[in-house]
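Exercise: predict the fold of this chain.
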Amino acid sequence: MRIAGLASFQRAFRRTVQGARKFPKFQIVTSLLRSESRVRPAAFDSVPGWLLALPLALANLAAFAEEVADDGALVEEVVVTAHFRDTALQAAPVSVSVLSAQSIELRAAQHLEQVLGMAPNLNYAAGASRGRFLQARGVGERSQFKDPLDASVGMVIDGVDFSGIGLAAVLHDVQQVEVLRGPQGTVFGANALGGMVLVKTKDPTERFEGSLTTGVGNYGAWRTGAVLSGPLGDSLAGRLAVHRFEGDGYIENDFLNADDTNDYQELSLRGKLRWQLGEATRLDLAGLYVDADNGYDAFSLENRRRTGSDEPGHDRQESLGLSLSLTHDGMDAFRVEGSLFWEGSDLAYGFDWDWSNLATGGVRGGEDNVRQRDAVGVDLRMLSRNRAGVDGPLSWVAGAYIARREVALDYEDHWQDSSGTYPSSFSSAFTTERQALYGQVDWALAQGWVLSLGGRFEGYDNRYADSAGVAAKPNDDLWGGRISLQRDLSDDLMAYVLISRGFKTGGVNGQAVAAADPAEDPEIAAFLNERIAFAAETLTNYEAGLKGRILDGGLQLALSVFYMQRDDMQANAWVLFPPADWKSYLDNVDKGKNAGLEAEAVWQATERLRLSAGLGLLGTELGELRVRDVDTYELLRQRGRSQAHAPSYQFHVSAHFDLHPDYFVNVQLEGKDAFYFSNSHDQRSGSYATLHLCAGYRTERLELTAWGRNLTDVDTEVRGFYFGNNPLKGWINEAYYQYGEPRTFGVTAQLRF
């Protein structure tokens, strides 16, 4: 083992930390992030100094590259599939993280929420059994109750759009997860205002292979899975993967004397077919079935992992998704690609909204939201055969997209007090149609210079009606795009500047409007009736980045800084109808701002030691939002503070050491700063850091691992509310938290054949 590289890294990093604030580059970056004209100056006050020094240390690693002796250890090249053409990660002019199959396995992750901390500036909100909603660079929703909703950060699994219904993100047999930050309007349109997460499962193989996986853990958890892949004929190959995960969850219900009221029961079945119809034509078919029947009993009046609910809730999703893609590469000048997806989901989400069993002095009740969602989309495009700067000066893409989604909601609830029980119901229907034309041109201006121009014009037509008589038909024509200039500084180092524009469709606040009664509260009724519909949001992103490999390919770096201007920002707020009935609504806000930095590095220090690190810094400003004060019930203007679920820093570091060709140890540490739970009040989460460990034995056929997540058993808040819900305390307003995963551990075995 050669130590020269490690010693040089230690010396350089120590020098950088000690003198970081003396460097002009550091002062430029921090002044950008702290600028009064861009983000609130206090946004980074809680960021530790060593975290602020980390991106500078990564950017200056090239200065000591000559001190390092080459030991032949290389970082494996990663390919990004998120754009029109497959591109090497270090050549993609965009801020993107790729979570590999190995990194997922080392975390023993069952679901996407358990690996999101590896990607800088990516957060999530629960309020359910799993993290349903994503926030990239502070942009994204945090919940959905009754109103229809389009996601600001989309999620696509094998070509099927599952945005906003995150229970489908099961990670068994996944090849990689791609996390794109910033607007991706050219490629994905309205569902990628803040970013996009793509989950790509493994493809059929040319040779027969398979695996069997099983494992157990604490809290009654167990898993089992199987994979079969290989040829089905001369030109046909297939892959089939099935997985089952069950666990009791991390809550004990004292009233029901049960430890499984927040349990997990998740089944996934995936199938893929790849058919080579000829030398130039290929057909790919992917199918996904997910059946999650999870409990939801996460909140307590005492803010602990022991509840007293008499009617525990549930979080269910049964989804079937299909995607079909056809590629024809027989033309001289271009190739043709066509894709189709269909998704059908039955969703049921319910909870005990008093979180208790109080029969005296209280109001008890629960609710159930049942949704049926069906969506279909078609995407057709032509792509030039050549790539700009590789085999020609110019390349281009032109395409068209059309999609339709229908969502039907049936809602029921009941509440009771000493005088009786009062049921109620509500239903709605929401249809959205989208049509788009898009294209992109890449032009090699000179040796090592590439200019890209992309654009997308999209029209949407929404129709909403509910049983309370609220009806609306918001529609609009929107546009987005990107201009990027890319410069190859060397064979292994690239810099880029980017301006991109994303958009998100408008919608309807049916729930809040239907709840407003002019006879009881004319001011709030008038306020909400003015907000039956909210307008579309647009976001402009200014970004600069540096990517590449140094140390003869042993160290991979990515660094980006960004500033985003949000116009007609869709901000979520709440209206409280005392004592404990609250309704959410979306309102448009001017002058929302988000700025920050993302840095990632992977260093194959020796043939046996691999180090990686990621850092996200983020400053946000909400703008001016009118809300109803939870304590005084007066309408006020919320202004000048950070946006919800936007921590000012997030980090992830890991070390993977092969003790022997057959034995390995992996240690990971990740954390994030505190963040506001909502735009309507000032309650915040705590900041935290969690430790994860995986050790195992691996051969060509067999793998045995022992793993642990959150080994120090830190309480992490993944959702929070503020209102009065405890009659024993006189309905005073309090903060209530849902906690993330506690300390979990287990063993997993996999047999490959």
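Check your answer against the key: The chain is about 10% helix and 55% strand.
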